[in-house]
Specification:
The complex is a heterodimer of chains A (1079) and B (130).
Chain A (H helix, E strand, L loop, with lengths): L8 H14 L7 H19 L7 H5 L5 H16 L8 H15 L6 H18 L13 H11 L4 H17 L4 H12 L2 H17 L8 H12 L7 H5 L2 H6 L12 H16 L11 H11 L13 H4 L7 H9 L1 H18 L10 H4 L14 H17 L7 H8 L2 H12 L21 H24 L8 H25 L1 H17 L3 H13 L6 H4 L3 H6 L13 H13 L13 H10 L5 H17 L1 H5 L2 H9 L6 H16 L3 H25 L4 H22 L15 H12 L1 H20 L4 H14 L13 H14 L3 H14 L14 H22 L4 H4 L1 H17 L11 H12 L5 H21 L7 H27 L5 H14 L2 H7 L14 H5 L11 H13 L3 H15 L6 H5 L5
Helix pairs in contact in A: 1-2, 4-6, 5-6, 6-8, 7-8, 8-9, 8-11, 10-11, 11-14, 14-18, 15-18, 15-20, 18-20, 18-22, 20-23, 22-24, 23-24, 24-26, 25-26, 26-29, 29-31, 30-31, 31-34, 33-34, 34-35, 34-36, 35-36, 35-38, 36-39, 38-40, 39-41, 40-41, 40-42, 41-44, 42-44, 42-45, 44-46, 45-47, 46-47, 46-48, ...
Chain B lengths: L12 H16 L4 H20 L5 E13 L2 E13 L4 E11 L6 H4 L20
The chains are: A mainly alpha (1079), B alpha+beta (130).
Pfam family, one (chain B): TFIIA_gamma_C
Family (chain B): Belongs to the TFIIA subunit 2 family.
Keywords (chain B): Nucleus, Transcription, Transcription regulation
Chain lengths: 1079, 130
């Protein structure tokens, strides 16, 4: 190695720069940080110069400074990976290869330098090894050659395996052309035997000697094996030979010889990899069965004695194992979980299999001293023992472990989900093909019965284990507390799988459990945990059969719900959540069954704990919604609830009012008038007070108004009928029930309520038109009080006057909320019928209303968007505006004809400008509107010769070419590539709707020719001011030719798509196709 | 380099915005196509990881029109579906397509085919839910 005194000046300068850049910072001041960043920029600039090739070897040879050597290796790697190798001649490339190999052969380098050098060699091989078609590459046998150099230099096997692992990773991660990829994989394949032999040698040495001279050798060799597995080029039968020595390295508490922890962990990781991606054609005998045998031996203490003679229930213990056993389970949990995942089908299929496992080398190796019986255990024994091990692993308490291990322990839950599925998927010998003549399925075989008995016993133990795992414990750390809800959810998922095996037995067990704990006065935490388990399995219950389950009537009766521990917020929340979840169950029961649950919920409504109160309000809402008719009989009791609403926190009042309203909805409509009056009257009164106080206390008044609006929304939602729209009668009026509602709406009291409601809304919109929060609250209210005819309620307000309110508010202060509301209301004015053929044209009155609204909205919006930067700065307004126009174009196309002079042209120019916006939602909305508008106008123009036909002609004459130009500029790159599909739809609308006849007629030409909208394409694309792109004349001609000559929309779209790729400069690149996203 | 993770999230608003940004950088020559691909592949990986760790839940009720399963990717087409979120909020839609797949790193494995022989790899099922 050369010393620093003899190095050339440029190298010395580079070394000084590196040392300065990598030196520990003297201070953390901005100036010091900036200085270091400046040095790093200088280094990167230096690295990019051609002269930096000459720095690589001197830097690598610089003694004593790992940073300098690392930068030398890094420079080589970076320049090769960046494709700068082409700047060297072939001889120089070979010279670089030999020099890097020589540098790699220098022993004693720091690990970071060594690994970077190996990476540089790998990158070089990726470029030199593949040949050029007929000729061979410049570095055949690069793997073997490099290994030879390293071995000759005396590098330890760990370093050689580090290189080999990196080689496999580099090749698998490289972005190569298919032929080059094949050649690189071939180069790895030619080294496969060398790799296997090398790993096998290290493995054999590790198994045979206690004192290993190089402790890093085995982990490196196994990491190398793991790196080569995904490539799939190591022969499966050769890897299989490595399995016995790997299993022999695993920990075995029964073994008299202590296990080396580092070795056993490395072996376990490798076996996990093999379990996750076993080579093709490996049967269970190669890996699974030997590992199940290991499990049976290593965890023999899980079932001490001859547990096979015990009853089924006792064989599967629901208790946590003792500390020593728990520690052993935790240390092997990753491998056990991986074995469970990979072998779950084997376990499910083998539970009662009497076949003995043939003891292969793998299962015997290293365990001969453990007294293994000569003929081997049965598969059934191994499978059942594994179930017990997994139960014990699931039950392990992780309180005293760190978080990582905790997560590993929890992942055992996944096994039970997989096992349940595997149990269901076991073929039963075509039992259904052998059905008797009466169609009855064949009786269960003894084996099926035995398997069912074992799986039932195992899952019965599991539900006991899981119940104990979800018990809340005082004194947990913050992190544990935060993770607990997610853990409980995962346990809940597993309980669902357990339910599929145990069915009603699970409910019976848990209900009996909670009852017994209440009887015994056990801790509230245990009661709460059982309630949580019952809640978790609800989603698996069949709603039809759940009603007949006696356990549930006990649960929600006085035996349990009437005696739940009081004073504990967590119990109350869970119990209320349980009622909420099971609210539909009560609909299948006599009304009296609701009693205990309803009393519990009502009692919690005024609870001081906010979480309890919220859960109570949610539960009440669900109960009332699902049991309207049953509760309507007790409407008097709900009057009392309403009278006491003052004690309910403000945040929950809307939910309580919604609950009461949903019960009122079940009354005959005329009987519901008075209760509705009683509900709405006070709210409107308080809203009026808030409006009156707005001048004095604006903030408090605004908050009070929002609260009252939320309550009105809740009442309106509650009054809406059942949510299943498919359950309505065929006619649009909602049948007999709908007719009764319409009669009740004529009552003077309801007319007065609606009038007061409308006036209040109009005043709120006038006063707080610029307030986003109020706008949102009004938006929710509008959705609740405007409805299709079939959904009409006593409170429903017609859309027309509300549209006027919205337009006036938008005129005062334009926001996206008002435009979105206008869209909803316009849609309500022309509601779709249940049967499309019955669609009637909107009335003249409605048409006039929409025309007026359009004029106001377009005027307001163009005033804002027409200002400089208006469209870019208000993307929400642009999006909602075009969405609103799209609605009008669909339902009230002629409304555009009534726009004031100049407004239509300004509107079209606005839409055309929007086609070049970079904010995609604005652009997509504009694109969608233009497409809809062109389609609708063209569709109705033939029957609207006085309005839409002249409008279409005007559009074609004045705006046609501008739309086409904006569209084509969008393809060329003015618009983001993600909106290509939207632009394609607009192009399709243009070329199909504005054909030759339509355009010639619009432009007053009688002769044929011109090509319609297609004919505009050449003049736009070849114009000097067309959007500058990578598309040359040839590409443009190809595109234009297809668009002009093709009559197929599909081909036109394909040509446009290809043009986009070319215009973005991505032709011939996989990136252009792989990155394109759907619009 | 083809991504070893599902690319489905590139169609999300976040993915679309990223694709558009990467497109711009590649077009202007600020980054190479290779780097662009790496960024998108990293996005695929990160989204797959993030989605696997989401705790939020929703239950869906609707009329199942069609469903299919191809290499462990499930497609469900629903009509008149209602999503009930964990916070009790409900969202209704007339049509929705649901694509469900396992955690992203299962893609390469769960293609389930040996790259050399074309044979189905036994035990390629990982069983992760995502």
């Amino acid at each position: 190695m050369s010393s620093s005194s003899t190095v050339p000046p440029d190298v010395a300068q580079a070394i000084a720069l590196i040392q300065a850049a990598y030196a520990p910072p003297s201070s953390a001041t901005p100036a010091a940080i900036q200085a270091v960043q400046g040095l790093q920029v200088q280094l990167l600039t230096l690295q990019r110069t051609p002269a930096s090739w000459g720095l690589i070897l001197p830097l690598l040879a610089f003694p004593g400074d790992a940073n300098v050597q690392f930068f030398g290796a890094h420079t080589a790697h970076a320049k090769i990976a960046r494709g700068e190798l082409d700047s060297l001649t072939e001889e120089q490339q070979i010279g670089l290869r030999d020099a890097l190999l020589e540098a790699a052969g220098v022993t004693g380098r720091p690990r970071v330098v060594r690994r970077k050098l190996y990476a540089a060699l790998g990158a070089l091989a990726l470029r030199l090894t593949p040949g050029n078609g007929a000729s061979e590459g410049q570095w055949p046998g690069w793997v073997q050659g490099t290994v030879e150099v390293l071995v000759r230099a005396g590098e330890p096997s760990a370093h050689v395996h580090e290189f080999l692992a990196g080689a496999a990773e580099d090749v698998s991660g490289a972005n190569l052309l298919p032929q080059a990829k094949i050649e690189m994989i071939d180069s790895l394949r030619s080294a496969a035997q060398l790799v296997l032999q090398s790993i096998g040698t290290v493995l054999a040495a590790s198994s045979s000697t206690q004192a290993d001279p190089d402790p890093a050798a085995l982990p490196a060799a196994l990491a190398c094996l793991t790196a080569w597995l995904p490539a799939g080029i190591l022969p499966g039968q050769d890897i299989a030979r490595l399995v016995p020595p790997l299993i022999a390295l695993l920990p075995n508490p029964s073994s008299p010889t202590p296990t080396d922890k580092i070795k056993s962990e490395a072996a376990a990781i490798t076996l996990c990899e093999l379990l996750g991606r076993p080579p093709a054609a490996w049967g269970a005998r190669v890996l699974l069965e030997p590992l199940f045998v290991w499990t049976a031996r290593a965890f023999a203490f899980i079932s001490p004695g001859n547990s096979e003679d015990e009853s089924l229930d006792r064989r599967y213990s629901p208790h946590a194992p003792p500390p020593d056993a728990a520690r052993a389970l935790r240390s092997s949990s990753k491998l056990l979980v991986a074995l469970g995942e990979a072998g779950v089908e084997w376990v499910a299929g083998s539970i009662v299999d009497p076949t003995r496992v043939a003891l292969t080398d793998a299962s015997v190796a290293g365990t001969s001293q453990m007294g293994m019986e000569a003929q081997g255990p049965t598969r059934g024994f191994l499978a059942r023992h594994f179930l017990r091990v997994m139960l014990a692993l699931t039950a392990v308490d992780h309180d005293d472990e760190d978080e990582d291990e905790d997560e590993e322990g929890d992942s055992a839950l996944g096994f039970w989900y997989l096992l349940q599925e595997a149990l269901w998927e076991i073929p039963e010998g075509n039992e259904y093909e052998d059905d008797g003549e009466d169609g009855e399925p064949k009786a269960e075989s003894p084996a099926q019965k035995a398997r069912a008995a074992h799986s039932t016993a195992a899952y019965a133990a599991l539900v006991r284990v899981l119940r104990s795992k979800v018990v809340w414990r005082r004194g947990w750390g913050k992190e544990r507390v935060e993770k607990f809800p997610a853990f409980r959810r995962d346990v809940g998922d597993t309980l669902v799988n357990a339910y599929y095996v145990l069915r009603d037995d699970l409910l019976v067990f848990y209900v009996a459990d909670v009852q017994a704990r209440i009887d015994a006065g056990r801790g509230w935490e245990d009661v709460e945990a059982t309630l949580h388990c019952l809640r978790a399995v609800h989603e698996a219950l069949d709603p039809d059969s759940a009603g007949a389950t006696p356990a549930l009537s006990i649960l929600f009766g006085p035996q349990v719900f009437g005696r739940l521990p009081a004073g504990y917020a967590r119990v109350r929340r869970t119990a209320l959540g349980l009622v909420d979840t099971y609210s539909g169950y009560f609909a299948t029961q006599p009304p009296a069954a609701l009693g205990a649950a309803l009393r519990y919920v009502l009692g919690a409504l005024t609870d001081a704990e906010p979480g309890v109160c919220l859960q109570a309000a949610l539960a009440l809402r669900s109960l009332c919604d699902a049991n309207r008719r049953a509760l309507a009989a007790q409407i008097g009791a709900f009057a009392e609830v309403h009278a006491g609403i003052g004690g309910v926190p403000d945040s929950e009042k809307a939910k309580v009012l919604q609950s009461i309203a949903s019960v009122i909805q079940a009354l005959p409509p005329t009987e519901g008038i008075a209760p509705v009056e009683a509900l709405v009257g006070p709210v409107l009164q308080r809203l009026g007070e808030a409006l009156g106080a707005a001048g004095m206390h604006p903030e408090a008044a605004q908050q009070a108004a929002i609260l009252q609006l939320d309550m009105l929304t809740g009442i309106a939602k509650g009054l809406t009928r059942a949510t299943d729209v498919m359950a309505f009668d065929d006619d649009d009026g909602g049948g007999v029930e709908g007719a009764a509602v319409r009669v009740a709406r004529e009552d003077q009291r309801t007319v007065a309520i609606r009038e007061a409601l409308f006036q209040a809304i109009a005043r709120v919109a006038e006063l707080w038109s610029a307030d986003a929060e109020v706008g949102q609250a009004l938006s929710e209210l509008f959705r609740a009080i405007t409805a299709l005819p079939a959904d009409l309620t006593l409170l429903s307000v017609p859309a027309q006057p509300l549209l006027g309110v919205v337009c006036r508010a938008a005129g005062r202060r334009l926001t996206g909320v008002w435009l979105a509301l206008a869209t909803i209301l316009i849609a309500q004015l022309n509601p779709p019928p249940m049967i499309l053929a019955l669609q009637a044209a909107p009335s003249a009155e409605v048409e006039a209303c929409v025309q007026s609204a359009m004029g106001e909205i377009v005027g307001s919006v163009l005033g804002v968007l027409g200002a400089p930067g208006g469209m870019v700065e208000n993307p929400d307004i642009v999006q909602e505006f075009f969405a609103c126009l799209d609605r009008v174009a669909q339902d009230f196309t002629t409304a555009f004809c009534a726009l004031p002079d100049g407004a239509f042209d300004a509107l079209m120019q606005c839409a055309i400008s929007a086609l070049a916006l970079q904010e995609r939602y604005s652009l997509v909305a504009a694109c969608t509107f233009l497409g809809t508008f062109i389609h609708r106008v063209a569709l109705y123009a033939p029957i609207s010769s006085e309005q839409l036909k002249p409008l279409q002609a005007h559009m074609i004459r004045v705006h046609g070419r501008a739309i086409m130009r904006a569209l084509l500029c969008g393809f060329a790159g003015a618009a983001p590539r993600s909106v290509t599909s939207n632009l394609l739809e607009l192009l399709a609308a243009l070329v199909t709707r504005w054909d030759e006849n339509v355009v010639n007629e619009a432009e007053g030409r009688s002769a044929l020719g011109g090509g319609g909208a297609r004919g505009w394409v050449p003049s736009v694309v070849f114009a000097d001011d067309f959007y500058p792109s990578r598309a040359g004349r040839e590409a443009k001609e190809r595109f234009v030719k297809t668009v002009v000559s093709s009559r197929s929309v599909k081909k036109t779209k394909e040509a446009a798509n290809q043009f986009v790729i070319v215009a973005w400069g991505l032709e011939g690149s996989s990136f252009g196709y792989s990155s394109v996203s759907s619009g | 380099m083809p991504s070893t993770f599902y690319e489905i999230y590139r169609g999300s608003p976040l993915g679309i915005a990223l694709c558009d940004s990467v497109d711009d950088y590649v077009r202007s020559g600020e980054i190479t196509e290779e780097l662009g691909r790496i960024v998108l592949a990293e996005f695929d990986r990160a989204l797959a990881d993030a989605m696997a760790n989401i705790d939020a839940r929703a239950s869906i009720k609707g009329h199942l029109r069609t469903y299919r399963n191809c290499v462990d990717v499930w497609y469900f087409s629903l009509r008149d579906a209602t999503f009930k979120m964990h916070n009790k909020q409900t969202v209704s839609t007339s049509r929705v397509k649901i694509v469900a797949c396992k955690h992203g790193d299962a893609v390469a494995l769960d293609l389930g085919v040996d790259p050399e022989t074309g044979e189905v790899i036994p035990g390629s099922r990982r069983g992760k839910r995502g």
